[in-house]
Every structure is written in C-alpha cells, then in structure tokens.
Amino acid sequence: QVQLVESGGGLVQAGGSLRLSCAASGRSFSNYGMGWFRQAPGREREVVAVIGWNGGSRFYVDSVQGRFPISRDNAKNTVYLQLNSLKPEDTAVYYCAAENRRTYYYSSPSAGRFDYWGRGTQVTVSS
Prior knowledge:
The chain is mostly beta strands. Helices cover 0% and strands 45% of the residues. Strands 2, 4, 5, 6, 9, 10 and 11 form a 7-stranded mixed β-sheet that branches. It has a 4-stranded antiparallel β-sheet with strand order 1-3-8-7, with no helix packed on it.
C-alpha cells in the first residue's frame, strides 16, 4: 500500500508561483509512474502532468505546457509540480497519483490507470 500526501497549495495572485510536493510512503516509489491531476468545481478531473518511473518521460496537458514542470526525487520519495505564471483558470484541487508499474508517458493517461491517490491540495489563483 502506498500513501500519498500533497502539500504546497494556497492562494496566489495571477502571475505568481507555487510549488506542489507529493510525498509517498513505501519502498517502491522509484518503480511507480507519478502524476498530478486537478479538478475544478463543476468540472471533471483532468490530467495536468505525469512523469515516468525513472524520470525519462513526461507528458503535459496543453494548457500547462511550459508553465508547470514536473519532477521527481526518488531518493526522497517525492514528486513535485512547479506552478508558474498562474492563471485564475488554474484554480482547482490538485491531486497526486501513483501508477504501480514502470511506465513511460508520452500521451495523456486515463485517471483509471493510477492505483493510489492523495487527498488533494487546493490551489486558488486570484485575478
């Protein structure tokens, strides 16, 4: 079993930055594909960014490409999402997710592929 705990959310003005972290329990973190999803009120959960098990592959949804780099530190069992140039439409609950396999990501994965989820962290961007 893997537990994921997100942190780093908050309230920020448009154009600002935040850094989200997701700390994972367990000894097999380096074998997991990791991702960040978000869900805004009244909208479906959508993938934001994902990173393969060894950091060698990444995928970003078009709306965050170039603004939200994803990274991972397997020594710390942590995945990060740097939120830059934030816009009001980025307001959502951001969830960390883990896929229990050595996955490479080159296209948008479905949420159903992910085996473990965190509880989410709220990001609110004011205009």
